[in-house]
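Record pair follows.
FIRST:
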Amino acid sequence: MPLATVPQPEIIPIREDLRLRKYDGNYALLLPGYQDPYVYRNSEGIFDDAKKPDLAYVKGMCDYLDAHGELYYIETLENGAFLPIGDVTVKAENPPIAIWFERFRGRGIGTAVMKAVIDRLRMLGFSKITGSTVYRWNDVSLRMHLSLGFSVISSNKEEHTLELEL
């Protein structure tokens, strides 16, 4: 959690059909999403489709993110119930976001979620997001960050590093 004295909200509403729900320790829920090669490449930079994260890897990732920020499931309303479709961590250094399922990509969900992260960080008193990394091949994520006002502060052969004044 970014501030130990500030409780993490159970729910952060974004739109009527989109919300963030506090991570409840169910790391197995993330496994199918991170086993998608698209998600794994864009979050971890690993192109070996034969190498997929296992449950222990996802647990370690969730433990780290939950200890260093506010970890949330991204949920969308479908058939009258909220369905987890991704995850995001509210933290001022490199806040990660993943939309697990292809059918939910390209619909503005990532942008709406990142706006909610920015708003939450402002509310918590942070003045800058630093060290946000986007792999060079992930044009969609780069465009999203730039559209939200992030600036590329450095690049190398594999990734761009961005920051945002809040």
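SECOND:
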Amino acid sequence: MIRVTDTIFLNEDELEETFVRASGPGGQNVNKVSSAVQLRFDARRSPSLPNDVSVRLQKLAGSKLTQDGVIILVAQEHRSQERNRAAAVERLVAMIREAAVRPVKRRATKPTYASTVKRLESKGKRSTVKSLRKTRPEAD
């Protein structure tokens, strides 16, 4: 079990890892060893995630989300397979934590008296400036 928040835990069976050859650091070793990790997580069908968190996670994933609702994360920053694996899981956990936070709804408020006065004064000044730019007919 991977602990994401106090209420959300991911079962490790929900993560599907594929190891591919990396293009990053590693010297000649990069041509021989599959050290990059491709982590797949089905956000749409995951029993571990509440529905509202799942919806926010899918929006947050953006281009990492497939049409089937699977999030694909690729980690190839490190030379070792194990460190790349840990980095991919950590990135997924961070995304889920961000999606778990409910957005605060905006409450509509009226503008303050001072802000209204300030806006009207600036409009008046702007109007004066523009009216002074107008061409006037010359008197003979």
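COMMENT: The chain has three helices and five strands.
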